[in-house]
Amino acid sequence: MNKVEIFENERASGYNTFVETWIPNYSVFLNDLPKLFSKMNPKELLVVGCGTGNEIEQFVHRSERWLITGIDPSPEMVKQAIDRFQGYEHVTLMEGLVTAIDAEKKYSAATLLLVLHFLEDDGNKLNLLSNIAERLVSGATFVMLDITGDKQQIKQNLKILRLLLPDGLDEQQINHRLNRIENELFPISEERLAALCVTAGFEKPIRFFQSSIYMGWLMTKK
């Protein structure tokens, strides 16, 4: 069973501000998501670790109607997403893990943003990727955004991230966050990430986006 990172209290309520602050060009990445899925049919999207629904927001106002299922283990995050998308009948939001979704249901597209680095590479990363692949049709597009790199790469890119942070942040807070990224999360190298994705049932992923420690990956379900 996957270990999960539950966002509660201030981590949940302040999540949107946090990601905008700490991920340079985050909004650019989100804005481009619909373009990456533009050729998918039927337009059925699975958003794993949907959080407050930032990626869902990119699809609900499109001229082409998407059927969207979002799932997240954090009750407080899901509640924010439910409040955000009230009245959108084509958006279904669930609290739980991706394994709660019937594997007989297949999607033509999926996202996994800012989730994998919370899981140890002890089978939990592979389990999550495999469970997503199991719920996709052959040829489906899968997009992932994650903290990626070996230890030296992470260390170097954290120095760049510090330079890109907004002015006015508390220095102690910056040091605490950078230390947590380097020593408490579980990023893996690009080579290891590619190997896990292929084992899970995807073609070799393409890195199409990078902003300091954060890398965006595009891949196709075999």
From TrEMBL:
This protein's record includes keyword Methyltransferase: yes
Listed transmembrane segments: none
Pfam family, one: Methyltransf_12
Example GO BP: methylation
Domain Methyltransferase type: 46-141
Keywords in alphabetical order: Methyltransferase, Transferase
Taxonomy, superkingdom: Bacteria
GO molecular function: methyltransferase activity
Hydrolase in keyword set: no
PANTHER family in alphabetical order: TRANS-ACONITATE 2-METHYLTRANSFERASE-RELATED
Name of the featured protein: Class I SAM-dependent methyltransferase
Origin organism lineage: Bacteria, Pseudomonadati, Bacteroidota, Sphingobacteriia, Sphingobacteriales
